[in-house]
Amino acid sequence: MSNGIVFLVGAGPGDPGLLTVKGARLLEHAEVVVYDYLANPELLGYCPPTAEVIYVGKKAADHTMSQDQISALLVEKAKAGKRVVRLKGGDPFVFGRGGEECEALAAASIPFEVVPGITAAIGGPAYAGIPVTHRDFNSSFTVITGHEKEEGSGARAQGTGEEIDWAVVAKLPCVAFYMGVKSLPSICSRLIENGKDPATPAAAIRWGTRPEQRTVTGTIADLPQKVAAAGLTAPAITIVGKVVTLRDTMNWFERRPLFARTVIVTRTRQQASDLSKKLAALGARVLEAPTIELQAPADWNTVDQALASAASYDWLVFTSANGVSFTRQRLLTLAKDARIFARAKVAAIGDATAKAITDQLCLKVDLCPQSFVAEALADELEKRNEVNGRRFLLLRADIARPLLRDRLRQAGAAEVNDVPIYETKPARNLPPAVLEALDHGEVAWVTFTSSSTAKNFATLLGPTYREKLRNTKLASIGPITTATLNELGLPPTVEATTFNIVGLITAMHHP
Which residue has the higher pLDDT, 301 or 401? Predict the structure, then answer.
């Protein structure tokens, strides 16, 4: 068997969006992924379902595997002919011990490639509003490991034989110390002892570029005390230099509307991504808690009969983007396409549904009321005299409210064929991270985008759901969802004025 190949990929400092395009493509085709403590687990979403994912996290006094064991694992998987991605936090060669792994691969005649990543000393300060170089302050920038091994009167960088010359370091205009929280008092005292002005600005940045980012600023004289008082722990990077004073002007990341707020998204797995990305862009730490699962009907017979007679309908109605997606999938399975609806006008509830109709079925939407509820669609159809004697095909969820169907029949529709195009099932449980965040009082918001998400979330939390959400803000996408929340004894903090994702988010950061 011929050997496989190993790609050492820099995962960046934490924000999943800082992974390189090449790194993402390699993960998409990986057979084995070996990742460490500082690589954001969200990046594993790029991996194919068949990939073997192995955690080899290393942090102070808690090593899942030794470095030698990790190197041996890479060799073993590659010799088995696998395409291996070694996902390393930051950059593989900046205190990432990637050089040692490359040496082990080369010694075993294993082909490898290195994909650089944004290192923490660049990404962390940038997200904290601190440029590592600035023409008014410094034209050089130095990185030093904060881990030290004390040997006699000197200090050596851990894992090397190189003694740190503090007299030289103290003269440098801007220095970043990696992983030096425990050593911070020693680092600062050595700088001062070797002539560094005690008033030199300094900052410690924990989990830089992530929603959990925390930044403490001060001087080298008082930063160790401030960091201890703030309870700042590893992983963190410390930057020393006058550029730290620019944070007041350039601190963009921590000023975003939802920065550092934990938000639970209760949509389905299929729908959560769009809302999650928009919330993350506003600074939120997003935890996805799918409360319902979507699946195809147990029996397609009713759907297929409706599609077979599509040419007989005057109106085709979709009430959700999910209905559009399942319709498209079924048409392809039946070797048909949207031409079967050529005779019908098309109505949608909600602009997201209308967009899905256009994007997925290439159909023009004839009616989408400004208010994204069934009542508004019924009102508009009656106002246009488009109900009496007309034939309607409704392709919806199995749990959809009967209001639209009933209103159309009462208004004189010749036929209203209300067909469940997909089924919804309650999720079996909530992710452990969601339960843990609620138990620790870390959740700022829970979002609800439908009545079913509200009901199912309460059920999954159990009989004490009101108590568990007592200090948490609740966001409702519209009046129907709000009514359900009120019935559950969970009055929402905000309700979207425009009943879509953008409206929901707007209500959250402009309550």
Answer: 301
